[in-house]
Amino acid sequence: MHRAEVWDGKDYHFLVQKDGSILPLTPVDDRGEHAIEYNGSTVAIAVFGDFAALEPGQNNKPTAAQLTSCVLLMQLINSRYGGKLWACGHSQLGTKGTAVASKLIYGHTCPGENFPLADVIAKSGLAKLFE
Questions:
Q1: Are 126 and 84 in contact (CB under 8 A)?
Q2: Which residues, 6 or more positions from 12, have their beta carbon under 8 angstroms from its beta carbon?
Q3: What pLDDT score does 23 carry?
Q4: What digits encode the pLDDT tens for the residues 21-61?
Q5: 3, 12, 25, 117 - which has most CB atoms within 10 Å?
Q6: Could you count the other beta carbons within 10 Å of the beta carbon of residue 92?
């Protein structure tokens, strides 16, 4: 998942908006342009907002509707592919086909400290790429 910085609609497969509505951007079977070395083998869900730890008082958390929609969308995609998918945040994908359990890959911290990624993955039933 990645905070939404959608330029031409080809970067990600889906965009989850603040009200929880899901906007399809690129067909799931088409290659997105969201994660170097993983573009051809992943489905990208962008969640509108910036969930990095910012200044106090800023609304930098996903809405309940966004979280619910993320879980449901992940379940639907997983079902389509036989229940064998894993999930991780954008910043957890490394270069040259390797996965890394650290942040700041390509300068990203996505989805950000204020996005409950582990909880969303657990509720979706997908496997976590990292513990």
A1: no
A2: 2, 4, 6, 25, 26, 32, 34, 44, 45, 46
A3: 93
A4: 999 988 877 766 666 666 666 788 889 888 876 666 566 88
A5: 12
A6: 21
Q: What is the pLDDT of residue 13?
A: 84
pTM, to two decimals: 0.77
Kindly give, in sequence order, each residue whose CB lies less than 8 Å from that of residue 34, ignoring residues fewer than 6 positions away: 2, 11, 12, 42, 44, 46, 90
| DSSP conformation class of 96 | T
Write the pLDDT tens digit of every residue in 98-116.
Answer: 444 444 444 456 788 888 9
Helix or strand (DSSP H, E) at 11:
none
Cis upstream peptide for 24 (omega within 30°): no
CA atoms of 12 and 128, how far apart (whole Å) = 20
* 82 touches 73 (CB < 8 A): no
Place of tokens 């889906």: 14
Task: Give exposure, 46-58, as e/b (b: 16+ Cβ within 10 Å).
Answer: bbbbbbbeeeeee
